[in-house]
TrEMBL record:
It is a single-pass type II membrane protein. This is Fucosyltransferase. Residues 222-395 form the Fucosyltransferase C-terminal domain. The chain crosses the membrane at residues 12-31. Keywords: Disulfide bond, Glycoprotein, Glycosyltransferase, Golgi apparatus, Lipid metabolism, Membrane, Signal-anchor, Transferase, Transmembrane, Transmembrane helix.
Amino acid sequence: MMHKTQSGPFQHCLVVFILLLFSGIIFYIYYKPTVSWAPCPEITVSTHDVCMDACFDIFKTENLIQNINNSCSINYTLVKQQISNKQFDDTEEKNRKLHQYDTIILIWVWPFGQSFDVGSCGALFGITGCYLTADRSFYDKAHGVMFHLRDIYGDLPNLQKMPRPPQQKWVWMNMESPDNVARLRAPDLFNLTSNYRQDSDVWVPYGQILGASEEDKVFQIPEKNKLACWIVSNWNNNFKRVKYFNELSRHIKIEAYGRYFGRYVSDENYPGIVSSCKFYLSFENSIHKDYITEKLFNPMKLGTVPVVLGPSRENYEEFVPKDSFIHVDDFKTPEELAEHLKRLDQNQEMYEQYFNWRKNFVAKPSYFGLEHACRICDHVKRNKGYRVFKNLDKWYWG
Ligand SMILES: *[C@@H]1O[C@H](CO)[C@@H](O)[C@H](O)[C@H]1NC(C)=O
Ligand SMILES: *[C@@H]1O[C@H](CO)[C@@H](O)[C@H](O)[C@H]1NC(C)=O
Ligand SMILES: *[C@@H]1O[C@H](CO)[C@@H](O)[C@H](O)[C@H]1NC(C)=O
């Protein structure tokens, strides 16, 4: 009797303790994808590969990134293991998991052959209930199918004959400008479009300016030891940007990188180089409305003032604050632009004005492929009605 009355409160404590322990474990399992217990210092952003940023975030969530000598690196052995494990996931297991999801999106081919973690729509975009898969055995069940334009030209005859479930939406996904990708010549194949253009059904710009968290607001302009920089992978003498660069570089020193200049920049070195320049030439390879790429959003994220060549200033101002960048059209000639950059180089206070926006905002490049699939899922979930996208070639290529 004595024993029983004494152990009463103790048992209560034990029960409470066990409950706490379990909820702690569940909390950890649940939130693991977004929480990084030992955060890596800086995430690498790639020059030519828009997927890279996304990959890094994904790999980090999978604990595939290692902190070696205080810098991030990916363990590719582990990455390969993860990817092959995913592909051989057995179907029964998938069917069981499927019950948690209300919308299935089939990724017809991995964009540019790059796979990505398909479990992040909730953690990254707050879009829940999505099951993304590249396993075509889900075709009949899929609510939407994402087709990356670059990867389907050879597949067209097959696609045109394929029977479709009545409510399934086919989504044309493409981030290349019309100058960089050929006409499709397959009329009325798709129900929806996903593109950088604001008038596409599932709009995914190359990047966004988001509200800053308290943590983001503690920002310092990185140390600078170069005036203006440019990294170019695709050199073509007929491009407007090449002509402009040739003229501009006669009046101001530009640190030029990239294969053409015999100065290849690795993904690892990219952030360090860009952030050490006062100005970065965010010159687009072709000029189209809304075609404002990671060439703008990466330098903005890394603390460098972009000098843009692309669509009109007005168009840029739809995406980023008007005092956050310099537009080549603001000047009559490249020489006048060079004079302006030299003036800013001599006047720190004037230079710092270009970072005023950073007090309230941050720049976030988009997640290539994954973000499209998640936003397509969200769109398909909300819009179950009939829709056909006619004259796609005319809309995109004119
Ligand atoms: C880490 O730093 C040490 C000492 O500086 C060096 O010997 C080692 O090679 C570095 N390791 C890697 C993986 O870079
Ligand atoms: C990467 O992960 C594998 C598997 O856990 C491990 O054996 C290997 O040592 C790791 N590689 C490096 C460079 O740490
Ligand atoms: C999608 O487009 C195709 C081709 O035009 C059409 O046959 C199909 O009925 C459409 N489906 C939906 C759900 O709108």
